[in-house]
């Protein structure tokens, strides 16, 4: 989330799309309700009429997988009707940047495309992104036209690209009526006026597509055009699927990042200097903060945190002790289980997860588990993953995998922090003691580390990384979360003077601005530097005192990365003179003294400013050379309407899901994202426009169950509320198939079949897609054979396809093709 939960109440219009927030993120809806009580409009766009839709001022439906078309139509509407915030767009986004002559778009492909080769992996193809570069002046600064008139400036290219997304065309693709489209576009575009704010709330209904990253980028473009980034009640706000997803991602859950979103090094980066040089952007524009120029400070401090005194300049701070990924190869969820299936992986720790139910194309995952030598299941209870060898259709005598179970404690039985969707790190204390033989995850990891070190002391190949690893996070023999939290924050490792102030060795670093690249500081995650300082544990604070602007920042309640900033890019909430676009609900404002039309003292108030420099302009309109552009994490300091770093194009483009009900893409000749990753083998079949699978399928959650149901399906009172796997369908489809509410049916995809109970409702309606009637159905993904004891209720992910987004490789579980047959 660019903003935070409480800030939702400051919005004038809330668009919930790719999410059923009222049911799946009910706490968020407290603040949505407050916004509505203050006059805000709520729009729900969803293939199914949900509990969120029931609370909305306006609801409309769209076919799953067509969100880019829907939002692309909004961009076209905003530009065609001159509803964008001209001053904001010209000053703060890269709309004025001139794009090089090598850039082009034709027949659904951007310039520089090369089709993928089967031997190169699952990607359908890739781009030479150098063809999307900006024109540079003699000082290597991007050339700009702030008037936005140059035919090759981003703004004009944007207008041309989305001029094809007319209401008629978008309606043809999405199934949404033209009248509904215009209503949504008009209502949300009104937030482009000064003093207005619009926000978007999305969840996995947007991410789990082969174009998931670009769906979110499309909405980011809308928000930049309307001036909704950085302001109170604005932003692009991701609703995480679990209370600590944000924290686990920040701390390196994903294969391609180190903590703090540093890059995982590849094998060709054979030294720390080469690695840092490749990851550190260089800007020649004096007004660009280009914050990632500090990359070496963060990477070296991380290595010092990993290896402590053993990390020195002489050994590259231990850089070569860390594993490297092979150049050009991915190690995502899909890729790991693909290799496991091919017997290239011997052992697997399934820690706090249930991939036998949660993974897309789960049938292949279950077969992959059979080919391991060993697996360790660390979880609260046994589950479909730990007992896969007892599952449907499995002969235990033919399974060679040795399975170990390590019982873990539940969250209330351990102390530590979570970081929620709004980036708020909150400290939680231990309640009851762990039951039985269960132990907190920290204790399990700590003991494993000690045991592994002992073994490497005796006999270990390539022992240095293990033996040199700093591993002193216990107190009186038990895991100490405070020691880890302090290590994540970071220490001064020697006496150091910064800005005439002496900081003593062993004291905690006050913020990431103090981190150094010479090995004199440590930090386990630079983004969290400032979370546990000499003043104490910032995340444990519980003050209900608001900031001076009284908009719900609550700066002394918990802690928010970075440096307790509650709304990121908040320097975009003010005009170039430092004065808020919104005079009533302002986030920050400049209150320095002025003399002769010039600022002569520096003072910001409100939220922690996104950089404490002077404003871009003096009160008299003259430019300042000691300021910075507001989008400080971008190399050139501007919000990216044109995104030349994405794998599938600098502008989002509508492509159909891998499995879809139409034979062609109505917008261009490329039906599927030409850079999508598709895992194809006998175990990875998929089908498009196949008469055996005529209906669009999607997955979703219900309130009564949690994730794969591990904590909820064993509970009889929750099973009484939602006892069975079900498929939700329209009355029209039920009539067509001769199915009555409550009857058992079979839902079949190209990969598997799942028995379900039919739920016939008005919540789904057929779509008119290009003159053809298209039906959609939905299945919850909380079930699996382990509970209930009948073993008849299986996982929806047995049905989902082996395809993913090229940027993230997240699976496309929200749009695939199925059939429904009455049993």
From TrEMBL:
Cell compartments where the protein resides: Cell envelope
Molecular-function annotations in GO: 4 iron, 4 sulfur cluster binding; electron transfer activity; formate dehydrogenase (cytochrome-c-553) activity; formate dehydrogenase (NAD+) activity; molybdenum ion binding; molybdopterin cofactor binding
Pfam families per record: Molybdopterin (PF00384), Molydop_binding (PF01568)
Keyword Oxidoreductase part of the UniProt annotation: yes
Keywords, comma-separated and alphabetical: 4Fe-4S, Iron, Iron-sulfur, Metal-binding, Oxidoreductase, Periplasm
Residue ranges of domain Molybdopterin oxidoreductase in the record: 2-449
Family: Belongs to the prokaryotic molybdopterin-containing oxidoreductase family.
Protein name: Formate dehydrogenase subunit alpha
Species name: Desulfamplus magnetovallimortis
Source taxonomy: Bacteria, Pseudomonadati, Thermodesulfobacteriota, Desulfobacteria, Desulfobacterales
């Amino acid at each position: 989330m660019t903003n935070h939960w409480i800030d939702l109440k400051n919005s004038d219009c809330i668009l919930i799309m790719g999410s059923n927030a009222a049911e799946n993120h009910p706490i968020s809806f407290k603040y949505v309700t407050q916004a509505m009580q203050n006059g805000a409009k709520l729009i729900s766009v969803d293939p199914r009429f949900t509990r969120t839709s029931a609370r909305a001022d306006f609801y409309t439906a769209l076919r799953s997988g067509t969100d880019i078309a829907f939002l692309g139509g909004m961009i076209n509407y905003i530009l065609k009707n001159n509803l964008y915030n001209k001053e904001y767009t010209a000053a703060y986004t890269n709309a004025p940047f001139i794009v090089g002559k090598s850039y082009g778009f034709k027949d659904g492909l951007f310039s520089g495309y090369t089709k993928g080769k089967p031997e190169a992996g699952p990607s359908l193809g890739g781009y030479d992104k150098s063809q999307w570069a900006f024109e540079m002046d003699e000082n290597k600064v991007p050339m700009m036209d702030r008037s936005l008139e140059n035919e090759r400036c981003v703004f004009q290219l944007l207008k041309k690209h989305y001029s094809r997304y007319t209401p008629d065309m978008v309606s043809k693709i999405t199934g949404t009526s033209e009248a509904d489209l215009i209503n949504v576009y008009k209502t949300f575009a009104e937030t482009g006026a000064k003093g207005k704010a619009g926000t978007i709330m999305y969840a996995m209904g947007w991410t789990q597509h082969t174009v998931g990253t670009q769906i979110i980028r499309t909405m980011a473009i809308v928000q930049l055009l309307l001036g909704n980034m950085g302001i109170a009640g604005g932003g692009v706000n991701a609703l995480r699927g679990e209370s600590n997803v944000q924290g686990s991602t920040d701390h390196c859950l994903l294969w391609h990042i180190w903590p703090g979103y540093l890059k995982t090094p590849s094998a060709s980066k054979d030294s720390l200097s080469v690695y840092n040089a490749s990851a550190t952007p260089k800007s020649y524009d004096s007004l660009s903060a280009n914050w990632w120029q500090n990359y070496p400070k963060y990477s070296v401090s991380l290595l010092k945190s990993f290896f402590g005194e053993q990390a020195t300049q002489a050994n590259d701070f231990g850089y070569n002790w860390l594993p490297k990924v092979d150049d050009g190869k991915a190690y995502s969820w899909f890729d790991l289980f693909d290799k496991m299936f091919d017997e290239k992986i011997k052992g697997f720790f399934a820690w706090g997860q249930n991939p036998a139910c949660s993974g897309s194309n789960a049938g292949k995952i279950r077969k992959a588990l059979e080919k391991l030598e060993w697996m360790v299941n660390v979880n609260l209870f046994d589950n479909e993953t730990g007992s896969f060898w007892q599952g449907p259709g499995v002969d235990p005598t033919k399974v060679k995998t040795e399975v170990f179970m390590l019982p873990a404690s539940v969250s209330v039985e351990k102390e530590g922090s979570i970081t929620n969707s709004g980036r708020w790190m909150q400290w939680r204390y231990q309640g009851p003691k762990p039951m039985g033989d269960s132990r907190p995850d920290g204790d399990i990891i700590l003991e494993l580390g000690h045991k592994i070190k002992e073994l490497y002391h005796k006999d270990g190949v390539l022992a240095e990384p293990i033996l040199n690893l700093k591993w002193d996070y216990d107190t009186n023999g038990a895991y100490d979360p405070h020691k880890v939290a302090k290590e994540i924050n970071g220490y001064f490792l020697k006496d150091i003077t910064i800005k005439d102030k002496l900081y003593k060795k062993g004291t905690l670093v006050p913020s990431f601005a103090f981190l150094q690249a010479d090995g004199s500081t440590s930090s386990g995650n630079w983004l969290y530097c400032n979370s546990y300082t000499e003043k104490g544990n910032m995340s444990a604070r519980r003050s209900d005192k608001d900031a001076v602007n009284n908009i719900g920042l609550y700066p002394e309640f918990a802690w928010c990365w970075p440096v307790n900033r509650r709304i990121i890019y908040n320097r975009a909430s003010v005009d170039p003179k430092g004065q808020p676009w919104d005079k009533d609900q302002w986030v920050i404002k400049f209150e320095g003294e002025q003399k002769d039309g010039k600022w002569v003292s520096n003072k910001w108030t409100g939220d922690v400013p996104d950089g404490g420099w002077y404003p871009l302009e003096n009160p008299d309109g003259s430019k300042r050379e000691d300021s910075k552009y507001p989008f400080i994490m971008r190399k050139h300091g501007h919000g990216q309407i044109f995104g030349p770093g994405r794998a599938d194009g600098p502008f989002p483009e509508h492509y159909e899901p891998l499995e879809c009900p139409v034979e062609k893409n109505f917008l261009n000749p490329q039906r599927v994202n030409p850079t999508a990753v598709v895992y194809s083998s006998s175990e990875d079949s998929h089908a498009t426009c196949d008469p055996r699978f005529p209906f669009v399928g999607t997955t979703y959650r219900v309130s009564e169950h949690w994730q794969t149901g591990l904590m909820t399906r064993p509970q009889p009172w929750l099973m009484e509320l939602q006892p069975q796997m079900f498929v939700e369908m329209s009355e029209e489809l039920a009539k067509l198939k001769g199915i009555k509410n409550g009857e058992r049916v079979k839902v079949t995809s190209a990969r598997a079949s799942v028995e379900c109970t039919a739920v016939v409702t008005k919540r789904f309606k057929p779509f008119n897609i290009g003159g053809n009637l298209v039906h959609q159905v939905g299945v919850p993904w909380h079930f699996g054979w382990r509970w209930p004891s009948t073993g008849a209720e299986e996982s929806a992910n047995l049905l989902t396809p082996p395809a993913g987004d090229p940027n993230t490789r997240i699976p496309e579980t929200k749009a695939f093709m199925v059939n429904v047959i009455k049993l």
